[in-house]
Queue: 2 jobs
Job 1
Amino acid sequence: MIKIEHISKKYKNADNFSLSDLNLLIHEKEIFGLLGPNGAGKTTLISILCSLIKPTSGSFSIAGLTYQKNKNQLKQLIGIVPQEYALYPSLTAFENLKYFGSMYGLKGKELDKKINDALDHLGLLAFANKNIDTFSGGMKRRVNLIASILHNPKVLFLDEPTVGVDVQSKNVIIEYLQQLNKNGTTIIYTSHHLNEAETFCTRVAIIDHGKLIVKGKPKELIDNSDGSNNLEDVFISLTGKALRDHA
Amino acid sequence: MHKLMASARKEFLLLIRDIGGIAILFIMPLVLIVTITLIQDSTFKTVSDAKIPILVVNNDHGNVSETILQGLEDSNAFEVNIKDTEEQAKDLVFKGKFQLAIIIPEDLSSGLAQKVAQNVDGIIAKFGIEDETESVTKPKIESKEVKLYFDPATQISFKNSVKNGIDKMVSKIETQSIYKAFQEQISDDASEVIFETENFITFTEILPKNNNKELIPNSVQHNVPAWTLFAIFFIIVPLSINMVKEKSQGTFVRLRTNPISYATVLGGKTLVYLVVCLIQFVLMLMVGVFLFPAIGLPTLDISGRLPLLFVVAIFAGLAAIGLGLLLGTVAKTQEQSAPFGATFVVILAALGGVWVPVFIMPKFMQTLSNISPMNWGLNAFYDVFLRHGSLLDILPEISLLFLFFLATTLIAIVYNEKKNTV
């Protein structure tokens, strides 16, 4: 489904590569977790796959399509849930979703129904006509998610979709994503919540310093790592305990 | 088309949700135009309501100084205050209490009379009307100097106009004195009129006519187009802020991953902000037509001009929007876009001739003015408002405005593509 070949990325004026010769194959209908400490290169990789930034070298394809040749087709195929709330604060949840749905060519009653169904699923229907700037962080995260799936994307990229939300909101989001996956959506997500990733992902890849350290099913990684009882133990054993502060 | 309309709808919703922003967008230009017109109106009136207080020190007390004082009173522009000494007057003016002090020198009247008499005697003697043997050595009469003290803060245009006025008054007095001296020499009868002292050459201002009605420009006809254009161009500030906000909110990132072209995004903004420009324009016209007469200002005459005025407003609005789109595309923060946008509009206005007419600018600035879209817009408005021009007359200006819109929008699109293409 997603074929990443020798992708490297070095930002302007940066000393080091954010991604270095990364190769990865993500299969259709997988829930694939990109894990790594701060500054490991997770968001950079997602940004490259969503055509937000250029790789310095290497190539990738999604469902056999590339941005160079099939830009609009590819954009119609993917959805992205950015880390920040990419919503208009002074518009209502419904108005935001109506606008972003329209950008995928959706319109009329069909679009209204999709919006209302999704809001209902994620417990926001009663707040459909409230402005986003009155929403809590968890509510914004859920609207942020809906804005990315109205067009039924084949591939959904999520950058820290549950960061800063309460347990209830997190559960609703995870359940909804699992539902989408059951319906055929391939999910690629980044997170710092390793427990969440352990249960949610079918496969994970741990990246550090822009390099792929390890990949596989969570259970296999735990079993293959001496003394590790969970994914967090594996993560610490592979990436170390040193702080990753960077500016 | 569906995406374009959805974008326009979103822009409309964003605008109407920002009540404070809308108030600033519509009310501030109206406040601006009323204030400026009230201030500038007096300069267009032949009789001003407000007289400028000035000081006069009369060291002469003769007929010439009386004529000067009478001339100042008759001008209706000045409120004359008499002071005893030059020092007193100078002190008050340099402290900024008065704009001007006129110091009339001692013996101005008698000196002028002597000088004129001496000259006339000489001329008459040359013609042999009087006996040359009577002539004696003529005493040298020193020229007299009327001193003018100006407040250092006084504008040069005011200084020049006062200097010209006094110069003209003094010349007239001199001429009349010469005629009078000739009359006294030639005729024994004081009541006999030999010389007509009224000006032979006079000036008449010929104004353009429409349907045999003279088109007399007033402060409103000048101010409304100039400041309307200024307000229209100020749209670049909220427009660029709107675009920068999209970047900081992250919505622009989402749009970049959506199957929508940047041109469509800009198209939606253009449609909505053009409507804003036109509403601003209509409000400005309404102020000129309805509010100005109610507060004692001349009425804005738009009879028969409305369609052409809207054409100019649309193209001026497009040019302003194009600039806003480019600024919003290039700027990264509101701290970049807002001050730059506001200052740039002021520069464009200055270059365009909103404050100082282009023809009195230095040559280099006149050349620069030719590439200011505000100059094209202002000329087009003046063509319609003051020169009663037709669509053909404003075609060059509106074409330039449209080309400017196309060029700036295209640069914005290309810049965005270059920056974001993967």
Job 2
Amino acid sequence: MVNYGGDEVSALVVDIGSSTLRAGYAGDDTPKAVIPTSYGYHTTAVDEAMDVEGSDATQKTRPIKMYIGQNGPSLWREGMEVTNPLVDGLIQDFSAIPPLIEHALVDVMRCTPSEHPILVTEPTWNTPANRERMAEIMFEEFQVPAFYIANTGVLNAFAAGRGTAMVIDVGKNMCSVTPVVDGFVLRKGLAYSALPKLVHAHARHVLTGPPPMRGIDLLPHQLIANKMPADLNAPPRFSIREDRMAGTTESWRAWAESREVDEWIHSVAGVLEQGWNDQLAASRPPKPYEFPTGYNSYFGGERLSVGEQFFYHPQALVASNPNLPKHLPALISETLRSCDAELRQVLSSNVVVTGGGTLFTGFADRLATELTRSFPHAKIHAPGNPIERRYGGWLGGSILASLGTFHQLWISKEEWQEHGKAIVGQRCK
Amino acid sequence: MASAADVRSILSLPEPSAVAGPSQPKKQAAVSTRKPEGISRELYSLIGPSAPSLVTLSKPQLKQKPNLGGGSKVKWEYRAFKNSARQDSLELRHWVKASTPADEEYPFVKYNVSSNVFTYSQDEYTRFLEDKEWSKEETDYLFQVARDYDVRWFIVHDRYDFPGGTPRTVDDLKDRYYSVCRKLVRNRPWEGDETSKSQLILTYHFDKERELTRKKYILSLENRTPEQIAEEEALFIEVKRIEQNERRFRKERDELLRTIAGIESGLPDIVEDEGLMNLAIDTKKKKRGSMAMDIDSPSTPIVPAPTPIVKRPQTAKNAAFDAANCIIRTDPPATIPVTKAAHQPAHLRSYKLPVPKAAVAPKITAALAELGISHSRLVMPTRDNIMQLEALLEATTSLVDTKRVVDKIGYDIRILKSRLGMRESQGAEGHPDAMDVDEGEVGDDGRAQSVTSARSARNRKQVRTASKLEYRY
């Protein structure tokens, strides 16, 4: 037992990301519960809901009804709004967090949170107020015996088996480059931007933009009554569920359409491994894709231009948009520039690629090309297993919380009651 | 990780084999005649149970199978434990074997080590540690951060944020920290001896200037453009190529010299050649030696067994056959142990020309040269000729030996005579003169010896070239 350093105390690990919330037992290799972070809700009156929201977390007494989990936002309900409590990777709306966690732990995992120590993850740019709030929720609402909050950058490095690494994490909304040294994040070296959002916006523009773009209707299947097979590139023949159109909210529509875009990105979009080249892009085989409306087509160069947004922004785009998120090579060089000269070599030879966004077709190869161009000795660790890539942060937390040496770091309930919020900053360095 | 067996034992489930489901086939009724231990299955199936066993069958003594605890049940308990590395009374629960004692120390506590960072008093600070660049508050802060992050400098530097302080580099922080440590060690009363104290000071040694230059080098190494790197690599490859070319040229030249100006023409061997050849032979020897070691050492127990076969009995028939076919058998030397290395393969007789002993070789050569005989080149090295040459060499050797003894005795006689002369003249002359004479004699002799040794060295060389020539044949 002592040989491998593990000692399982049936701790739980909760990793909250922009797209999904992952929860599971420490020591497992995959999270038991993966639920979307977006949730649907009904409000009787907006102002009334705002009053009560923060005060009481239990669903029964809430005037608004929340729809959480796999059957939450993805089911069409009349008048259901959809929202996401996270903004730029940080929790903005804490009122929704307890129900989400409760759903994952109690409804999906069927366990009692008050019996288990809980490790929660946070992004590197998390604010002290946020992590203290999280500790408060855990101790006051879930009555956990012990709590710890760990950094996703560090956890991703641990999941890759490294104490020192440069972690490139591409999520749904945020893309970050974090230098980790000896299990600590170098906060001054952190670089992050909302790059995936830009990629998403570009993809949406490619699909729905007016000519020369496609101008495709991104209606989700929930709103389509029936459709006829359509020829290639022909206008689709389908009928809309008129009964639902009136009751569909703007936020649900936006959520559903962005999901259609994501689906398209996942199955069709890619990036050229060796940098952009018109001829090479033209020589790549186009890929077919059919939308819920029945419109189907082959996508050639445009599908490859989407991934290009991760690595290169044309001058015109930069000039027209001053708030453009930095692309990945810029983030990497920013991180390395702010690190000590001695560390650069170590970091560039320990690059850990993680996050669901990195599963983008051709991403790892292109990243390797970009990196070796400026750092010939760069070595990239990108797990081939997509589960490991998507849940890297959770996996690292699972490893950490099942180590025998870790159990002295838990913030216990007793300590929380004695020291208050200050203990979080002291313990979770 | 708990194995399936562990889970079974936790849940007190019976072993899977014990509850065979209905789907599993019924076990055949056990065969009444058991195969006795220590007899192989194939043999048993051949001789059957009825065959009486002549040999006493004993079970072979094999290593005992390790007991992995699979057979017996292990009881597990879900137990609360306390971690003594914690200050509070948090009790976590984990599964342990019931056999572990309840009051056992948590096994991971021993990994809770903290680095010892120096502390200093106000008095010490004012006496030794004043620095115009650093205030006491900032120094305190630095030591606190160093303690918090276990003196991991990159992290200390990252988290270092002294309100109102000037921005500091890692090297500034290290410099201050280590200088304070050094001063503290130096000025505090020290219990141990001086060497351990200076050693401790040495561990806190930090040269900021050197560190800065080192980092500058790293930066310049990093800032090379790809062209520069490519050029550097090209140059490196070029140098390697030139070196290789040169080596090849030299080898070829040596070969050429050896072929053209070789021993055939009677020219002396080339010095570089010798060196090279020695080197080559050396490496060959080494290689062969190591190979022999590798191959022979495992098989040494086998080798001695077949050697007696080599000594065939000399029957009359064999002798007749040998005489008819002019076969002469040489007995291997008895003193040398019979190994692979001592084995004499088929060889040309010219390889086995007798060579005079190295110690007396020059004298023998000189003696033979006096007689006008060249012993080093045998035109027809037949058996008889070689035997004659051997006899000749032996005779010459004994002659030379005799001469040496004669010389020695003659020399002794001369010395004794001179001593006698000295004794006789001692009455008339003084002591120092005798010393003079003595010295002069010794000096003469020494010169003579050096002359002969020079000559002999030359002779030896000649002999060597001659013998080399023989090897060529």
